[in-house]
């Protein structure tokens, strides 16, 4: 999953980026509202962490512009603890949740995990497809109850497909949501990781839809 952090404090920005990358997210960053608005307007993020007190363009204006332009990604706003009015204004402008400063990194991670999960239509931290179970909170995959060891790249790819099971996901969409801006988008990395996942998890779990992309199919009996 790919996230955007818009925070003007350099130390806090680095803290958020490091903490989110540590739990497996790919993170782009911006340090002012104008840059943050541009990235959120042009790149497909799975969620955004947005500070309201930004230079150049304030966070509330950024959020209002995104929503006005039809940008639907979940947004977690950062607010000062004693500014309850900012929380209300942020929610009214289209934010999905908020965290008050100072905060614990674990809370930010948990709230983002929930936002991404709900945006994909899942109520639980565990997503299943046949006998394969992905635990988003624990960052673990099992098959028939046995742990499957995956690299961070393999886990991110499987997690994205599992979050969107039943839908064909193009190679371009996978690259856009799993890698940062500097990733070589002409790379055959996706095909390589899909091949590895089929060997490690289940050869029939990920279906190739010729000319369109990949799909984890949904049926009464699990994936086809």
CATH class of the largest domain: Alpha Beta
Please, what is the average pLDDT?
A: 90
Number of domains: 2
User: Which structural class matches the secondary elements?
Assistant: alpha/beta
CATH architecture of the largest domain: 3-Layer(aba) Sandwich
Characterization of the model:
The protein is an alpha/beta fold and 224 residues long. Helix content is 40%, strand content 21%. The strands form three sheets. Strands 2-1-3-4-5 form a five-stranded parallel β-sheet, with helices on both faces. It has a four-stranded antiparallel β-sheet with strand order 6-7-8-9, with helices on one face. It has a two-stranded antiparallel ribbon with strand order 10-11. Strand 1, helix 1 (10-22) and strand 2 form a beta-alpha-beta unit. Helix 6 (152-163) packs across helix 8. The longest helix has 15 residues, at 105-119. Mean pLDDT is 90; it is low at 220-224.
In short:
This protein has helices at 10-22, 33-42, 59-68, 84-93, 105-119, 152-163, 171-178, 189-200, and strands at 2-6, 26-30, 47-51, 75-80, 97-101, 126-129, 132-135, 140-143, 146-148, 207-209, 213-215.
Task: Note the topology.
Blueprint: E1 2-6, H1 10-22, E2 26-30, H2 33-42, E3 47-51, H3 59-68, E4 75-80, H4 84-93, E5 97-101, H5 105-119, E6 126-129, E7 132-135, E8 140-143, E9 146-148, H6 152-163, H7 171-178, H8 189-200, E10 207-209, E11 213-215
Parallel strand pairs: 1-2, 1-3, 3-4, 4-5
Antiparallel strand pairs: 6-7, 7-8, 8-9, 10-11
């Amino acid at each position: 999953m790919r996230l955007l952090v818009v925070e003007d404090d350099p130390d806090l920005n680095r803290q958020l980026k490091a903490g989110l990358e540590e739990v497996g997210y790919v993170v782009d960053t911006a340090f002012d509202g104008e840059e943050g608005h541009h990235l959120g307007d042009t790149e497909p993020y799975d969620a955004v962490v947005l500070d309201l007190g930004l230079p150049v363009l304030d966070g509330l204006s950024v959020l209002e512009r995104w929503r006005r332009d039809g940008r639907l990604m979940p947004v977690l706003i950062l607010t000062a603890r004693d500014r309850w009015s900012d929380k209300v204004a942020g929610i009214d402008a289209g934010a999905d949740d908020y965290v008050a400063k100072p905060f614990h990194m674990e809370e930010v991670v948990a709230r983002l995990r929930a936002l991404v999960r709900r945006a994909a239509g899942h109520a639980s931290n565990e997503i299943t497809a046949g006998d394969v179970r992905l635990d988003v909170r624990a960052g673990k995959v099992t098959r028939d109850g046995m742990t499957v060891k995956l690299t961070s790249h393999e886990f991110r790819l499987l997690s994205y497909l599992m979050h969107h099971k039943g839908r064909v996901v193009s190679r371009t969409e996978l690259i856009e949501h799993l890698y940062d801006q500097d990733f070589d988008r002409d790379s055959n990395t996706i095909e390589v990781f899909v091949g590895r996942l089929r060997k490690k998890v289940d050869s029939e779990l990920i279906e190739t839809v010729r000319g369109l992309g990949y799909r984890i199919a949904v049926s009464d009996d699990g994936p086809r």
